[in-house]
Specification:
By secondary structure, this protein is mainly α. Helix content is 70%, strand content 1%. The longest helix has 33 residues.
């Protein structure tokens, strides 16, 4: 008979978290300085406003978006915050060492550094969505460190080879495929066809919609922080509006009962913001068209592709991040490539541009899949005390519930 309670993480989670945190403090003491002498008060205020929007998305939006499971609300919000808080520290160090050239090995923190670190944390949270509810906090900490490391190395490699940055494409594609591949390695037969606790109710659905609305409202700022063309905020706003209408219509149209699915809509209404941020068209009707296509693919993916991935490939993507981020992300990248090729008159330049950007996409996809598989085998190790199948999607494996305590 299986044990009643999940294995205690007292000997795993606290030592790992404390060792990592103390190590980061030591590294920051030797290598990190605060302040930018060229940053005036006005520039600081403008940068801080942008940072604050991204900050709200990372620590509030993504956490509550993941709280749709009826018995996994504490873990959704709490573990998202834990992963993001650890990831931003590690990302600050890696970005400083690999992407900032300094002969003295000193990292100078400014607002852009914090925004870049939170972008890396966002990528880790996307990867976490694919294994949502099936991993313990020890596994999530290790997974986030591996994902951020791979994400930054991928950025450094692309910058070194092609003299360009593709952080917004890598954010969605790398993070999602990394998580999907990790989920494939961690596949549990008990999740087939669907775990008994993988469901939502009116309360959990409302909390998740609360997180979705925060992401929806701040997504224009999120794209503006990643793209040098600040005009992208206008197109993102329009694309998100189109995505909302399209997602609700397609969800009802594809339902056998003609009703909308709240979980599908929570992800699909963000797909337009993902695709538009990568496409960077600066043309309103193009942004709206891309938002329409992205929401259409995302909603149909939730309705049909998610179940097919589980049955055919044994990939259990809990939050459907493949539909919300990877597919719209690749769609936006292909749209970006096509639009730029049409605008180029020199055939040689166009061919070189196409080859370079296709290589960037292939490198990102390859690195995410390989590293995601490696991470899956690493955190699958029994030393990290993964919980039993019947304890998946359940807060009681990790959190105290005083009203359920056993009195002696």
């Amino acid at each position: 008979m299986a044990p009643r309670y999940a294995p205690s993480l007292r000997s795993r989670m606290p030592p790992l978290a404390i060792v990592l945190q103390v190590s980061f403090i030591v590294l920051f003491a030797f290598f990190v300085e605060t302040g930018d002498p060229e940053e005036g008060d006005e520039k600081f205020i403008n940068s801080y406003a942008n940072f604050q929007d991204v900050h709200v998305m990372v620590f509030l939006g993504f956490g509550f978006l993941a709280s749709f499971l009826v018995r996994y609300g504490f873990s959704s919000v709490g573990f998202s915050m834990l992963v993001a808080a650890m990831a931003v520290q590690w990302a600050t160090l890696l970005n400083g060492f690999l992407l900032t050239s300094s002969p003295s090995w000193k990292i100078r923190i400014k607002m852009k550094s914090l925004v870049d670190a939170e972008i890396c944390a966002s990528s880790a949270l996307l990867a976490m969505g694919a294994v949502h509810g099936k991993t313990n906090p020890v596994q999530l900490l290790l997974m986030s460190l591996m994902e951020v490391t791979g994400f930054v190395i991928n950025q450094w490699l692309i910058h070194s080879l092609f003299k360009t940055m593709s952080s917004i494409m890598s954010l969605h594609v790398f993070g999602t495929l990394f998580g999907v591949m990790t989920s494939w390695v961690l596949y549990r037969t008990e999740n087939m066809p669907k775990h008994e606790k993988e469901k939502f109710d009116s309360k959990s659905g409302l909390f998740a919609m609360f997180g979705t609305l925060f992401l929806w409202m701040f997504w224009p700022s999120f794209n503006s922080a990643l793209v040098k063309y600040k005009i992208i905020a206008y197109g993102t706003y329009l694309s998100l509006a189109v995505s909302t209408v399209t997602a609700m219509a397609v969800s009802a149209l594809s339902s056998p009962t003609g009703k909308m699915n709240l979980v599908h809509i929570q992800g699909s209404i963000l797909a337009g913001g993902v695709a538009t941020g990568i496409a960077v068209t600066a043309v309103p009707w193009m942004d709206m068209t891309i938002g329409f296509c992205a929401a259409l693919l995302a909603t149909l993916g939730f309705r049909y592709l998610k179940g097919h991935m589980l049955h055919a490939f044994e990939i259990h993507d809990t939050r459907g991040v493949l539909n919300v981020h990877a597919i719209p992300g690749i769609l936006g990248y292909l749209a970006y490539l096509l639009i730029r090729l049409v605008r180029l008159e020199d055939t040689t330049v166009a061919v070189r541009f196409a080859v370079n950007h296709i290589c960037i996409l292939l490198i990102t996809v390859s690195m995410s899949l390989v590293l995601g598989m490696f991470t899956g085998f690493l955190i699958k190790w029994s030393f990290w005390k993964p919980h039993q199948d019947r304890k998946c999607f359940d807060d009681q494996a990790f959190w105290e519930f005083p009203h359920l305590a056993v009195r002696k």
